[in-house]
Amino acid sequence: MPNMWMVRAGRGGENVEDFVRHGIVALGDTKVGALSPAIKKDELLRLFAEKYPEEKEGSRAGWASQLMRFMGEVKTGDMVVTFDRDHRLYLLGTITGEYEWDPRLIEDNPHFRRVKWTNQVPRDLLTVSSRNTLGAILTLFKLGSEVARDFQAHQIPIGTAIADVPPKPKEVAAEEKDAEAAVRAEVIEKADEFIEDAINELDWKQMQDLVAGILRSMGYRTTVSPPGADRGVDIFASPDGLGLQEPRIFVEVKHRNQTTMGAEKVRAFLGGRKAGDKCLYVSTGSFTKEARYEAERASVPLTLLDLRDLRKLLVENYEKLDAETRALVPLKRLYWPLT
Fold this sequence. Notes:
Oligomer: single chain
Number of strands: 15
Strand content: 15-25%
Largest sheet: 8 strands, mixed
């Protein structure tokens, strides 16, 4: 079986009609101009750096990798797939020519390969696993054998009238719901990990500001200690900001990745606290069992927050955060269909 490649038709599939009309698949970009298929990766990277000095090195490397694959790894005779979002159809074809460059076909995507488009597959006929794979954000990527077989099992000639997709058998529908639930759980887990990564990338001052911002979103006024000796308190919070109204919350923030806080740290933080005080100890590392036991038996109420707890608080209160705090860890709401 020949390799099968997914090539997106621009953002949102905006170029799919041009793909079919001209019999091509195409990629950007316009600034680098026509390329020789024999170009080396380091040469292409230097070209992108010259044309896009303002872009991140990682972004330029990704663009270069995509073009290198498009020119060299994709072969004549390989299968190619693109998505027509308006009609919820995947179009299938065969690569028939080598790399070419011509901005007259699609202005923003002048790097192209000739294609003979032959078949189509309604998205709703594909398995959840295939649809999940096809949701990858890359413009160009190779499809696995299972996805290729799924396409070949459901392909019909382009232009064929598509009848309503019949309801799936109950057992198949149940399996797909289980598969969708697994995908949803995986996406949520990855999102949680990426948010924790973003929090971890903050410096110690930004970490204090993040915790203070979360407390403000919960209705408290906060004072963050300036750099230097803070006498064991990084943030003070209370309803009025003066400590005249309870609860008075004393916060210690330790931004020490992969460092476990022991009971002695907890005891040191609690020293000097008195009745009526509330304490919060935040560590981006973790806490020993002894530290958690020390917090549970403390005479002054003390809550320990690790990185996961901090991420949960951030997400729960994100809509109420001020702009300065949101800018520390920018997030975007993701909607997922309920089934």
